[in-house]
Structures are given as C-alpha cells and as structure tokens.
Amino acid sequence: MRIQARTFLLGLALPAALAAQSAMPRLLGLQATFIGQELRPFASPYAGPNSLTGDGDRAVTQTYGAYVGSQLTERFQLYLDVELFRGSGVGRTVGLAGLPNGDAIRAGSADLGQAPYLARLFGRWTLPLGGGGEAVERGMDQLPGRVPVQRLVVTFGKLAANDLFDTSAFAGAPRTQFMNWSLFNAPAWDFPADTRGYTRGVAAELRLAGWALALGRFQMPTEANGNVLDGDLARAHSDNLQLTLMPEGGPVIRLLGYVNHARMGDYAAALAQGGTPDITATRAPDRAKRGWVLNLEQPLAPDGASGLFLRAGWNDGHTESFAFTEADRSLSFGGQGRGWGAEDRWGLALSIQDLSREHRAYLAAGGSGFVLGDGRLSPARERVAEVYYAWAPRPWLRLSPDLQMIHNPGYNRDRGPAWVFGLRLRLSV
Fold first, then answer.
1. What is the DSSP code (8-state) at residue 5?
2. How many Å apart are CA 319 and CA 288, to the nearest integer?
3. Which among 95, 54, 41 is positioned nearest to 384, based on CA atoms?
4. Hey, is 209 helix, strand or coil?
C-alpha cells in the first residue's frame, strides 16, 4: 500500500496539533550560522563529472533557524523547527566522501529554492519507569525541566535520524564542533534522509540504569540524494537498532545496526552491463544495504567540556550509496578540550574512509555516484584531518577558525592533497 508523504506526516502530527490548542508554545532558540571556506588549488592530473575542483574554490553558506516547543500534556511534547539555507559548499559539494562543510546541501540551493522550510515537526512522548528524576537544560529541541532517569521515550514525525542515533557529545554538531561530514556521523552509516538531511518516522528508546535500547523506522528517499521521501513504506524504509551502555566512570558505548530498503542500484550489476557503468540503470525496489557502527565517547572532565571519541563503521558495499555519503568502511577518532576562555573549545580529529571492492571497481571504470566520479580511479583510502578553535567571548557568539587536510580526495591517490581553510560564525540565543 502506497502512503503519500503528506498524509503520513498529517496522521502523525494531527493529534498533537489538536491538543496544542490548550498549550502555550515556547521559543527554545534562534540561531544563525555563517561558514566561509577556501579550497586551495591542488594536484589534479584529470577530473570527471563529480570531481572536487583542483583549481581551488571559495564558498559561503548561511543557515538561519527558529525552534519552538510545547508541553502539551504531562508526558507529551511537540517541537517545530523552521530553517532557511543560502549559499553552497566549495567545489559544488561533490568529489569527497568527507565533505568539508556540514551545513552545505549537496544539491545546492538552486535545486531546492531559497524559501524557508520545515526542518522538524515531531512529538515526544515519555513514560516514567522509576529511578527518580534528572534535570535537562533548555536546548534547540529540548524543553527545560526534569525527566525520569528510567523511561520509555517515543519520538515520531519529521526529524533527523542522527538526532536520535550515532550521537556524540564531542563530534556530532557541525555548527559548533567538527564541520567535516566524516566526523559528525559515521560515513558508513547511510542514514535515512532527504537532500537536506531530514526524514519521517518513529523511534522508541527504553532507558534504564546504565543502558538504553533504541529502535527506529524511517522513510528513505525515492532516489539517491533525493529530496522526495518514498511513500512505499513496505519496500522503502530504514530500520535502526542501537544499544547504549553507560557504565559509571567508563566510556559511553553505542552499537548501532541498520538495514536500509530502497530502490537502489547494484555496483556489480552496473559493471556487468559493459561500457561506462551507470548505477541508476540497475535500480530495483526493495534492495537492502546492511551495516553497523561502533561509537565510543569518554568524558575527561565532570562538566563534559573535554573528552575523546571514536567511531568505526561498515556496510556491505554491494548496493548503491543512497542517502548520506559514499563510504563503505569508516574510522574516526579525536577529542575536544577546553580553551583559554571558560566557554572556548578546541577539537582535533582524524577520519579514514574506504570503499568496497565493487564500489572501487565501479568508479575505476568511469562510473559516477551522487558525490563521486573522477572518470577513473587509482584507489586509496580517503583521509581527513581537522582542527578547530571555537572562541566564545559571549554566550550568544561563537567564532571558529577551522583547518582541514584531505588526502586522496574521492579515494583517488592521483589527486590531492587538498587543504580547506574555514571560518564559522554562529549567533544563537
């Protein structure tokens, strides 16, 4: 049975919207983030349709957002986020698995328009299970107050899957922490999302003393990097299961497993066609991509200002990279520390991405994906190193110079290394 996306969202949000007539919405935050980057020229003996430009480039992105929440009942909250995006990433936002700007949209603003858009509209229902309560601070999508230590939380509506899965206190927010795509999520997790990074679905998390278990099902796009979510929920969806261990004094350990079903192509089938392979010509309904992510974080200070993180990810690599970026194996590690000022932070991290044998062969034969395609390939692991310093002279102001060095851009040892200099300004209240 095919369910249209608007009908699906309306069915999720309507009960909460009716109840909202008796609740007072609360403005949780306003933010504006400006990111300017310069890609320096680098060695590029050849290039293809989706190559990172070797001639260098400069680009600026702007994002603006307003975030509202409402406590509709004792156990139910509703959140609404509206955002506006302008600009584009360096190099047309292609040519890398680890794209350098976490705010950049791959399709570019020309494809999606310049108007404000609904980023999130979701409900959060909490069932107390005992264990007392703990305080939560006001956030962009978090009403302040107290929540039960042990609880069952159900979240549904339009949201970002990485709001709920593969999170990290030290590498999960490209507007305040690392900006490279390979560092704010595991690149091998092809997480369900439209072009802007959002999806629709439902997730439930059971949180008890020392551990938590979360399960979520979300919509997939109709095509790779597409901005239309597939309404054929029986054959197009993403299932995610995450176990989180939170031992006292020890590292937080998250183990995520996922299976994506969508109308994806197959790299081996594309190669078997002969000539220049075209992954889009092999797409078929209900193809599956499976993978896992290991996510560790270790706070080094009681206030959480300093800590270390590590992510390792893998997917089968047979089916087409579809929603996040083109990576089949990934490893990243690094840390965040306190700077000179009380609210200043610095970060240093390294990520390594690789492709499956079939994916490498497809690119080497001249095939293109939605972010990669040099026309040929001398295979090598893509490596990204990033360092930033976030200077916060006021609670509402954060200025962050950033430097990224990218070896073997697009998994190609014939090209690079590429250097990206950046400056990020964030205003938030």
1. H
2. 7
3. 95
4. coil
Nearest to 316 by CA among 351, 284, 295, 292: 292
CB 336 within 8 Å of CB 347: yes
The answer to whether 84 and 117 have CB atoms below 8 angstroms apart is yes
Residue 279 backbone phi and psi in degrees, to 5:
-65, -30
Q: Give me the count of residues in the chain.
A: 429
- What is the average pLDDT score of the chain? 93
Rounded to a whole number of angstroms, the CA Rg of the chain reads 21
Q: What is the structure's pLDDT at 24?
A: 86
Question: Quick check: bond before 379 cis, omega within 30?
Answer: no
What DSSP string describes 67-136?
EEEEE-SSSEEEEEEEEEEEE--GGGG-S-SS-S-TT--TT-HHHH-SS-EEEEEEEEEEEE-SS-EEEE
State the Cα–Cα distance between residues 282 and 116, nearest whole angstrom: 35
Which tokens sit at 43?
């060695």
pLDDT digits (tens, 9 = 90+) for 237-253: 999 999 999 998 889 99
Could you tell me the pTM of the whole model? 0.92
Is pLDDT above 90 for 106?
Answer: no
> Strand pairing of 382-394 and 397-407?
antiparallel
Three-state DSSP at 305 gives coil
CA distances to 3, 189, 221, 279 from 404, rounded to whole Å, are 43, 22, 30, 31
| pLDDT confidence band for 421 (50 / 70 / 90) | very high
Domain boundaries, the chain: 5-428
Evaluate if residue 131 carries a pLDDT over 90.
Answer: no
Q: Buried b vs exposed e over 76-94: b needs ≥16 C-beta within 10 Å?
A: bbbbbbebebebbbbbbbb
For 399, the token pair is: 């200025």
Among residues 107, 319, 322, 320, which one has the least CA distance to residue 224? 322
pLDDT at 132: 86
> Distance (Å, rounded) from C-alpha 121 to C-alpha 201?
11
CATH fold for the domain made of 5-428: Porin (2.40.160)
